[in-house]
Amino acid sequence: MLDQLLPIIFLFIVVITFGAGMIALTQLAGFKAPKNSVKDMPYECGIPGQDPGTTKIPVKFYLTAISFILFDIEVVFLYPWTLIYMENIKAFGGYLLGAMGIFMCILIVGLIYELKAGALEWD
Amino acid sequence: MGKDILEITINLVKVAVIFLMMVQMVPLLVWLERRGSAFIQNRLGPNRVGPLGLMQLLADAVKFIFKEQFIPGNAVKFLFLAAPVIALVPAALAFAAIPLSTAISIDAFQAMGQTWGPYVINMQSVKMEVGIIYILAVSSLGAYGLLIAGWGSGNKYSLLGALRASAQMISYELALGLSIVGILMIYGTFDLNKMIDMQAGPLSFVFMGKEFIAPSFVPNWGIFFQPIGALLFFIAAFAESNRLPFDLPESEGELVAGFHTEYGGFKMLLFFMGEYGHMMVSSGLVAVFYLGGYDIPGVTPQMVNEFFTANVGGGTIASVLTSLIFLGCFVTKVAILLWIFIWVRWTLPRFRYDTLMDLGWRTLLPWTLGNAIITAIVLYFAKS
To answer: Could you give the CA distance from residue A94 to residue A88 in angstroms, rounded to a whole number?
Structure first.
């Protein structure tokens, strides 16, 4: 376990050092010009900014995220099931297939309901 | 990690070298993309700096380093500076688990008054049994880099681009995760090395108690068992790495440049590294799942090793040369897939946002679910 974790931690440190080092280097080496209020404005193709960057967010994004969590749990359940299914396919494969079939049916009904209810409509 | 100081050092240096190789591929890919797009659009592309414009990479790097590092007034300074690094981390971590070639075995040798080795050095940063779970878990963290960049920039175009990016990434992650369920069932393992071993040799399978074996030039690759799964995985990989036709997060017509509107210089290059890193991880995964990884059709590592042992020299030298041959094969496969990424970019137009989400939820998700169910039923009748 530790054998697999140590290289990942080391790589993580290498990547962070590389990224932070390069950003620090370019901050030091880069050309420097005086700031002014026009330069500090958010970029909006040259017109004066209308509102701050933290605007209201459409609720559609939250709905998408909630649907994602439901179906992602399904994927998480499917992965260990594939291994168990292939190990025991000769002994009780039919039972495993049926069990996952019921689980999938519930989710597919949920997906159809979600599509019919218009939760994933973008206009 | 290793049993003595030399092996630990070799393994740690290998981790850093593979990461730097990945980083060094990025300027080369940018050059290939610019030359390739020029070739497709009947232009010349960068051709002034050095032969074929290859020195353009160095010129770009110098410019990136000496550009003014500008932080907009509205920005959240720490998030603004941290986001490019956070965008690079998932791609680098995911790339570490992809097996690049056959393992190198180093014979025992005498040095500094003691015996070292024998060692077996894997040609991948970290060898793990749950490789695919780890790659999916780590690479889905990529959405954080974009979201933090969008929030930290203090610009409404950046924020909208980041929101679109995260909604798109989570939508297509479902298709990405479900499209490989079929191939995982066929291999019955999460270990990428075992998958590559299983794809060696000629195409063979057992169906209804009878065994079929194809001639030796037809490889036993996953794409013959899961052609629809391979296509769906590749499409979802395009969306995951925010490439055209799915580059809605940075659609210039509507959002200026999306989440990296306020970024310039090396910070933007780090985002590029993240994006190209995701492309490399996706291409590597397609190669491992569906194209046999580093497997060469009709040639086994033993054959290559015996050839080098007979002609060049045995032991460590033969092992290193074998590993290089298979590394070349893997890199060729990944390069072809990366070229397809570039080719598609200049062939297909961009989706509209609602059609993009429709494609993810109404087309790819049902197709991947159907692919998984049909594979499970076929395997049940084939194996029992």
So the answer is: 10
**Could you tell me which residue, B112 or B327, shows the higher pLDDT?**
B327
Distance CA B354, CA B357 (A): 5
Report the percent of chain A where pLDDT is more than 90.
7
Band the pLDDT of B301: cuts 50, 70, 90. Answer: confident
Enter the tokens of residue A91.
């002994």
Q: Residue B67 phi/psi, 5° resolution?
A: -70, 155
User: Tokens 């036709």 correspond to what residue?
Assistant: B245
What is the rounded radius of gyration, in angstroms, for the C-alpha atoms of chain B?
23
| B212 beta partners | B205
pLDDT mean over A40-56: 68
**A90 neighbors B384 (Cβ within 8 angstroms):** yes
Q: What angle do CA B20, B26, B27 make, to 5 degrees?
A: 110
User: Hey, which bits of chain B come out as E strands?
Assistant: 104-106, 109-111, 114-116, 119-121, 204-207, 210-213
Task: List the one residue out of B3, B197, B184, B16 whose CA is nearest residue B96.
Answer: B16
- Only one residue has tokens 């993580």, namely A12
Average pLDDT over residues A7-29: 89
Which is it for strands B104-106 and B119-121: parallel, antiparallel or unpaired? antiparallel
ipTM confidence? 0.85
Contact yes or no for B241/B282 (Cβ under 8 A): yes
Among B23, B261, B380, select the one facing A43 at the smallest CB separation: B261
Any idea how long chain B is? 384
CB contact at 8 A, B278 and B299: no
User: What pLDDT score does B231 carry?
Assistant: 92
Supply the DSSP symbol for B52.
G
Q: Is A15's CB within 8 Å of B92's CB?
A: yes
Q: Does B144 touch chain A (CB under 8 A)?
A: no
- How far is it, in rounded angstroms, from Cα B123 to Cα B142? 25
Chain A's closest residue to B158, CA to CA, is A53
Q: Which of helix, strand or coil describes residue B121?
A: strand
In which element (H, E) is residue A58 found? none
| pLDDT for A123 beyond 70 | no
The three-class DSSP label of residue A11 is helix
Residues B88-122 as b/e (b if ≥16 CB within 10 A, e otherwise) read bbbbbbbbbbbbbbbbbbbeeeeeeeeebbebebb
Which of A35, A43, A121 shows the shortest C-beta gap to B256?
A43
Higher-confidence position of B153 and B249: B153
Residues with Cβ < 8 Å from B111, sequence gap 6 or more? none
Task: Supply the pTM of this predicted model.
Answer: 0.89
